[in-house]
Amino acid sequence: MAIDKTLILPSFIQVMEGLQDHWQDILYVDLPVSLLHFIIGMIGGLVVAMPVGMSMGWSRMANRVFDPIVELIRPIPPLAWIPFAIIWFGLNPQAAGFIVFVGAVFPILINTYVGFRNVPRVYVESAMVLGCTRSRDLIRYVAFPSALPTIAAGIRIAMGIAWMCIVAAEMFGASTRSGLGYRLWDCYSLHMMDMVLLYMIVLGLLGLFIDRTFRYVVQEKMLKWQAGLTQ
Amino acid sequence: MYRQVGAIQDPGPLVALTDRKIYNSSSPPRPMALLEIKGVSKLFEAKGKAVEALRDINLSVGENEFVCLVGPSGCGKTTLLRIIAGLDRPTDGEVLLDGKLIEGPGPLRGMVFQEYSLFPWRTVLDNVAFGLELRGVSKEERLARARSYLKAVGLEAFEASYPHELSGGMKQRVAIVRALVNDPKALLMDEPFGALDAQTRNVMQSELLRIWQEKKKTVVFVTHSMDEAIYLGDRVVIMSARPGMISDIIDIDVARPRNRTSPEVNRYRERILQDLRALRN
Question: Which residue among A126, A137, A226 sits closest to B113, beta carbon to beta carbon?
């Protein structure tokens, strides 16, 4: 009886005991590996999505070229890329990072595109009559700051998806034999449900922490000019 | 200064005679033309149909002159202003500033828009300093200059505010000094006070005149309010709609500062009203 119950939902005490026994593994092995996947994927996503999204939003020509390619690849779920990720990169962090990249790149790209597309005309024209006429300057001084709130929202969505992709990619073993997702699945196969629950909680807390940090830096520092309704 | 009566009574030395010759002409000479609009026409393509927005506009605006464009909506006054700014290209004709052809937007013609156009991501001070920043003026100098302009319109206390924290009148005041800090030859204003309440509007008009007299600028001011045009302008250009053409140009010969309700102002009002009524029929 008791065994069945803890299998369905482990007790708080059990989870705490798990934390006590394994916190070093979590903190020094699995967490850094998962964060590495996250960083590889997010940086890759930003580096690809921002320039492409900016050019698509700024020039009709670039939009015409990139749009069909983007819309063809976008519907493919990131996890469908796992076989190729393993073939291309091997069982190492780049493979899982690539899956994260596929998940993160499109929300950033589409929000960057929308942000650039919707730059109010009056800002662009004001800048032009003030002497800002080169396309490069207009992007730097007008389009980018104007689009930043939309881009930031895209990055936040992308971070959420990235986090999901990390766990799935690690569960599929698309990396070294470590990481929060890998460990979670490993513990499940051993029916250590208290550890499964513990890893879930760690994943949740970490996601919360990353989002709060991002919001603090971007919303409070870079976007403090926005007139918000809530404070 | 050179009173005709005095000159007749006392011929005076030769120099005075030459002076008299110049100043005795029936009307004071127009100041040198700074802005010349020559045969400007504009066609727009809308749903396959060509719409004639402007037809053969000819107008020259003198240095330090204040010209108001009035007319019914759709008469192309904003289009004309945008062509002067270089934001739109005329289909035919040309606009010259100081004898040079206008081919695109530039800091020599400052523009103030009807919509609030301050960059919301920049503080008031950084908005004003924007034009100088683009020209590569050092940070210290551009902030000092922006501050002195803000002070001129009484907004020095708001330099660290963001535009959303300002009232409508304050925003337009900042927009005006943002254009002026570039030291443009001409200031183009597209119904800048259209969104303000009547009270604020009057205050802004007086303030604009004060700035205009202080900084000595040529102003082209688009408005649909003839009261505003008579209060502000040296000349009022009345335009008709579809196609946009100049139907009359009226010199407002009223000494400044003007009284908004004096009989002579009312006479101009009556005349412009008649013009506009005639246009509608």
Answer: A126
- CATH number of the domain that A87 lies in? 1.10.3720.10
Q: Averaged over A87-100, what is the pLDDT?
A: 94
Mean pLDDT for chain B?
87
ipTM for this model? 0.84
Annotate B38-73 with b (16+ C-beta within 10 A) or e (fewer).
eebbbeeeeeeeeeebbbebebebbbbbbbbbbbbe
| Domain encompassing residue A12 | 5-222
Q: What's the structural domain count of chain A?
A: 1
Q: Which of A124, A126, A133 to mutate to test the interface with B (most CBs of B within 10 A)?
A: A126
Residue B70 to residue B262: CA distance in whole angstroms:
21
Q: Is B192 on the interface with A (CB under 8 A)?
A: no
pLDDT in tens, B68-115: 999 888 889 999 999 999 999 999 999 999 989 999 998 899 999 999
**B171 shares contact with chain A (CB less than 8 Å):** no
Measure CB to CB from residue B117 to each of A123, A132, A141 and give the nearest one.
A123
